[in-house]
Amino acid sequence: MPHTLPDLPYPHDALEPIIDKMTMEIHHGRHHKAYVDNLNKALENHADLQAKSLEELLRGIKNVPEAIRTAVQNNGGGHHNHTLFWEIMAPPGTGGGEPVGELKTAIDNAFSSFTEFKNKVKAAAVGRFGSGWAWLVWDGTALQIYSTANQDSPLMQGHIPLLGIDVWEHAYYLKYQNRRPDYVDAWWSVVNWKKVGENLTKARSGK
Predict the structure, then answer these.
(1) 182: part of which helix (H) or strand (E)?
(2) Which of 24, 16, 31, 21 is nearest to 190 (CA)?
(3) 187 and 145 part of one domain
(4) Sequence-ordered list of residues with C-beta below 8 angstroms from that of 199, at least 6 positions apart, any chain
(5) 103 forms bridges with which residues in the sheet?
(6) pLDDT tens, position by position, 66-110
(7) What predicted TM-score, i.e. pTM, was given to this entire model?
C-alpha cells in the first residue's frame, strides 16, 4: 500500500498565534506531502518494502538497498517525524501547560524538574546547526533528550520518539524569521501533553 498524507487533527489556523495559518498550510500541504510522494517514488520497484510499515522501514534502514536508502531515510523520516509533530500539538488553551501523571513523574525523575526538562529541550533545538529536530525519546529503559539532523528519525537508533520540535526554517521562518529561540519558547503553548503521555505509555508497554 502506498503511504498517504494524514489529515491535520485541527484546522490550519488552530495553532495561531503561535504558528500561523500560512506556515501550517505550506508545512503540511507542501513539505510533508513532498516527503510522502518521494517516499512512494523511492519504493516503486520494491514490493517487499512497500509491504512494511513506516516504523519497520526506519528501524530497519540498514537493510534497505543502498541505492534507495538515503531517499527512504530522508523522506520516510520526514513523513514519520511530521506525522508525530502534528499529533503532539493542540490549539492554545487545549495544548500547553504542564504534563501530569505518569509523564510528569518520568520527566521529573529523568531531568529533575519540568523547567530543567524544557531548558534541555531548548538547548537541543537551538544548538542544532542547520536543519533538524529536537527530541524526547524512550530508549527502551529511560527518557533521553537529543537532536538529529535533517529528517533523521530516532527510530533509526532503536528509540521511540515521544515529542519532537521541528527546527527546519520552514517550520517557523514566516513568523519568527531567524529567531529560533523565540519559536521554541512559544511552541510550549501548543504541546499536547495528553498525546505525549499516551506515547510514553505505549512505548513503555512495548506495543
Answers:
(1) helix 180-187
(2) 16
(3) yes
(4) 88, 160, 161, 162, 163
(5) none
(6) 999 999 999 999 999 999 999 999 999 999 999 999 999 999 999
(7) 0.96
